[in-house]
Please model this.
Amino acid sequence: MKQANKRRWVWPLLFLFLFLFYLSIPGLTGEDPIVHSESGTDNTKDFIGAKAPLVSGERLKYQVYVKGWLVGEQILSIIGESYYQEQPIIHIHMDLRSYAAYSLFFSYQESGDLFLDPETLTPIYLRKTIKDKDQSWIEEYLFEVEEERVEKRIIRNGKTEKKSYLQVNQPLLESLSLIYYLRGRPWQKEQYQFYFLSSSAPIPVNFQYRGQEKIRVLSKYMMADFIEDPVSRISVWFSTDEKAYPLKIVVHEKIGTFTSRLVEISYIEKE
Model:
């Protein structure tokens, strides 16, 4: 049962965190990551959020590889600033899917809406719609900081069940909010610990900053901040510029090594 529960959150985490690296992409050249703005305007100076260079309209596209095989893609979008229950939030949207060519082996789709606290970059609310082969369900998470708990609601086959987790401490993160939290470079403030909301309970995680490395991404070599968690065996590389793009992530699991890379950056203006 524990192994089944672990697999249940590992796949979304792997797809979320893996930003591909090995294959070159024709046409992507230059000194900086290629930014394609669908509106023709790059508003990268209009930062939102107190601790990270987040930009309304930012759209990041990733591809996911397993043992060299391209198995899926993911798109992370910053919708912008809004309010949730009279509280200011940053709205993040995520779409994730495995490719149809592998449907005989596995099929996974997920879409999610995450509301982040602009000051702490920690989650306030998360709603995910998941389809795993022939099963589908909705998960909702309400992070109640003052009550020190997280309320989780699962809607499956029209039935709803609730479960609450004791919130050990802050910052408490899940897989999607973790990406944006780390973009705030907490290691520069000597902040190396957070709590991760696993399928069973919040667990403490201590990551390590390994310095800067030159990696190949977007058909060129770039310097990147290298973050590693020896417990979860996840490594993440962020761009060293002010935007702190997640460039590459590698996850080592018993079933193999998952590698992902950033393949497209775009900015979409609101009409």
Q: What stands out?
A: The chain has one domain: 2-264. The first strand starts at residue 35 and ends at 37.
